[in-house]
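Chains adopt folds. We examine one example:
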Amino acid sequence: MIRLLLVHDACLVRAVLAEWLGREPGLDVDDTPWRSAAARIRSLSPDVCAADLDCADGHGIPPLGDLSPARAGAGRPPALVVMAHANRPGLLKRAAEAGALGFVDKAGSPDRLLRAIRSVAARERFVDASLGFGFLQAAQMPLTRRELSVLSLAAGGASIAEIAGSLHLSHGTVRNYMASITRKTGARNRIDAIRISRGEGWL
């Protein structure tokens, strides 16, 4: 039996997916929104976590750290499957760096999600071919993971002080990151960097 935790912020979609997956033999399905994911992982100790990368909270930044071994507590961490779009290379990069084993195209068939869940439960990688271009774009992104985190918070309207507090950085370090982001994106200022990054699908 594969214990599955489905993480999705859209209640209706989450409920429908959970009901559909729960009909499959060998799957024991629970579901939760992102804000409760860390606590549910600690209490349920699932074998697999299937998470939608579109997050309603935290300025749209999925808190993938909540699904990491450090936050999951003792024991074997769940294998991670993410549901994503090819035009969001920034999110694909975040998920890959967080250790995701499965990558499912949200524009594809639901059966692909089921195949991904069974694959990663056996600790085998699963990647939809249709996400290949997104991964190619992710590999060419000039921004580091930390710079993406800073820029994502800035795009959500956070001030330098708020970004520093959220990421546990000094104000000067945040300013240095913003200067580096502006330079790497070829932007004129922070607002221009956000515009360019959104246009490229990095945010």
